[in-house]
Amino acid sequence: MNKEFYIKKAKEFFYNKDYYNLSETCKKLIEIDDNTKYYFYIGFSLYMLENYIEAVEYFEKALDKNTENEIDINYFYYIGLSYYYINEFEKALKYLKIYLNYYYDSSLSYKYKKTLKYYIDILDIYGGNADNFKFVGICYYRLGNYDNAVEYFEKSNRLYDINNEKDYYIKLFLGISYYRIDKYKKAIENLLEAKCIYNNGYILYYYIGLCYMYVKDYINAIENFNKQLILSNENSIYTICYLSICYYQLKDYKNHFTLIKEARQLQKENTKNHSFYSFSKCL
């Protein structure tokens, strides 16, 4: 049998969306070369033909044969949805979570918006645990949908509380999400709880500082901004600018102007790296 011939035919069937013949051709290719990708394309073809039970069988075979870590992240999307359509929700959650986890901290939000919908649908049917609710909350957080992020972080938080457990990242992201929707007191409450769990995260002190600044507690804001600068071991132009605002509000004009000078110097240095910061907030 001519492998190149079947590969050429498989490509034609794929681009023409002829999924029946694509699957049959890939079965021929497996007889020649027992390769992971051919099992995937058979699974994909069966998925497109809405034969989800057989699709799962081939996707699982593709994963079993993945001895050289050749699995593309999209495998997990299609196997997750195949399990979704045959109502095996626990397995669907497992694979969709792997897929979402790959993209949730990236800027490629279009990669997981649709997947997140399926994930939430499963939670509505199957029920969720603290970890799943946290994960959905993080996805919404990354999408900038802070109201929904708060909803799912709170669900996760309640389940952790029932078990007398605490999770730093739930408290951190919940606090930041509350900050993003201008609920500063709730934000401070959760951020301080995060601090009790782990007190060496510089991003934590940055947001505590911001929240205190917005509720006009400038002394606490200064303390936390300074802690952030120490832990991050770098001079953030944003933090220095916010510090200058706090000193200005406290009528400590000497420190205010010192920080403005420092921020302007940092701006000159950053200009070399093509970055720019406006000082309108500081003045």
Quick description:
This protein is mainly alpha-helical. It has 15 helices and no strands.
Which key features would you list for this structure?
single chain, disordered C terminus, mainly alpha, 283 residues
Topology:
Layout lengths: L2 H13 L3 H14 L3 H13 L3 H13 L9 H12 L3 H15 L9 H14 L3 H14 L2 H17 L5 H13 L3 H14 L4 H13 L3 H15 L4 H13 L3 H19 L12
Helix pairs in contact: 1-2, 2-3, 3-4, 3-5, 4-5, 5-6, 6-7, 7-8, 8-9, 8-10, 9-10, 10-11, 10-12, 11-12, 12-13, 13-14, 14-15
Structural overview:
The protein has 283 residues and is mostly helical. Helix content is 75%, strand content 0%. It is built from 15 helices and no strands. It has helices at residues 3-15, 19-32, 36-48, 52-64, 74-85, 89-103, 113-126, 130-143, 146-162, 168-180, 184-197, 202-214, 218-232, 237-249, 253-271. Helix 1 (3-15) runs antiparallel to helix 2 (19-32) and helix 3 (36-48) runs antiparallel to helix 4. The N and C termini lie far apart (76 Å). The relative contact order is 0.04.
